[in-house]
Target: Amidase
Amino acid sequence: MRKLVMSFLAVVCMVSMFAGSVQASSNETTATWLWDPALLVREEANVLAFMEQKGINKVYVQIDASFGQQVYRSFISKAGAKGIQVYALDGAPAWATRGGRAPMVAMLDWVKKYQASAKADEKFAGVHLDVEPYIHPHWVSKQREIITNYQKLLLDAKALAKQIDLPLEADIPFWFDEINYRTTYGRGNLAEWVIANTDGATIMAYRDTAALIYAFSKQELDYATKYGKKLSIGVETMWSAEGNQVSFSEEGEAYMHGELQKVREQAVTSPGFGGFAIHHFDSWRNMKQ
Model:
């Protein structure tokens, strides 16, 4: 009987390890993107329960002013009680154009007014931008101009966020370290520039094997270490038309946790390693176990 009990407990521990949190320590971020704030209206309790189950301690929540402040106040206060930081999320490729700054300013103006009226436990913990300028149709033909506008956007956003005492983070693709810029802001490596000029970054290392995820993130981890920043390593759970190698959607959550543990074992030696970010809430919640 004792052997049976011990075997049962061993199985339970293994299942819990794979089905639960990807978080390894209290100093490590386990983040996700929540793009649909309507979920906070329809099923706030379910959203919070899932995040608690998975050990999520940071969530980037899309800002949609049409939902009103109370939706965000309710969620942030309840998330905070569970140890989850909430960052205001927004961004679009058009923001990296000459006239694209206005939506960013409007978004941060909304956050500024929100912070001013919110109680201490209802306030956002930071701002997270997902601009992805390379999706803009002029990225190839006018890359220098787009990059210049993108750099200006991030610097302006950081200054505005600082006015309301919030850190600014940004998403970057894993291949930004292959882009060398020569703009108004000097010359250098674009991945390094973004990491140096924001308070934190998430690298979208969207592959489904530990070897590739770590390989794609290593240079950015070095940059983060150099500038005293923290880099979150992002992975995909949503099906991708780019091929099966991009997302964990085909393999499932248990496989994903196994690969992320392998990444952690290599990345944890870097002072710039900040944890993982799983894209995104809905697809993660619905992926096979």
